[in-house]
Amino acid sequence: MSEYQDKAFHFEAVKLHLKHDKNGHVLTLAIHPQDTPDEILRSPVGQRYMVALVAIDDREQPIVNAKEDEGAKALRFAAALCRKPLFQGWICQRYEMEVSEDHAATAMCTALGIESRAELKSDAKARQKLRNLYADYANWTGEPGYN
What we know:
The protein is of the alpha+beta class. It folds into two domains: 1-63, no CATH class; 70-141. It has helices spanning 2-5, 38-42, 70-83, 85-94, 101-112, 124-141, and strands at residues 13-21, 24-31. Strands 1-2 form a two-stranded antiparallel sheet. A hairpin with a 2-residue loop joins strand 1 and strand 2 (24-31). It starts with a helix and ends in a 6-residue tail after the last helix.
C-alpha cells in the first residue's frame, strides 16, 4: 500500500450526490477548482483510481468512525498515555528505566506481555491488562478510570 501513498492526490471534496446504476454506486463529489489536481482533469473518462476517504470536521480533524473497534481505541489510548509525562515517570519508575516516551512504550509492552502496542488491536487479553494497568495508574494519580 505504501507505493500508492507517494503517488496519491490529496484534496478536500464535498459529497453532493449518491445514486445507483448498472455499474454500481455513483458518488458525486465537488472539489474546489484550486484543489483539483491537474492530473485528474487531464485523465481520460474511465480511468481507474484507488480511493481512500476520511471524513473531517470543521477543524480539519478526522471524524472517528462510530463502528471503530475496541482494539483501535485501545491502541490510540495506549499511545496517548505514553505521551503523558506523568505516566512516563510512573511506569518507567516501575520498570527502572530512564523516563521518556519510548521507554514508557517499552515498559507498557512489558507490562501487557506484548511485543508492540499494535497488538492491542487484536489481543483482548492485552486490552484487559491495559485496563488494569491504567486502573493502577489512575488510582495513583486520582484520574478517572479507562472506559
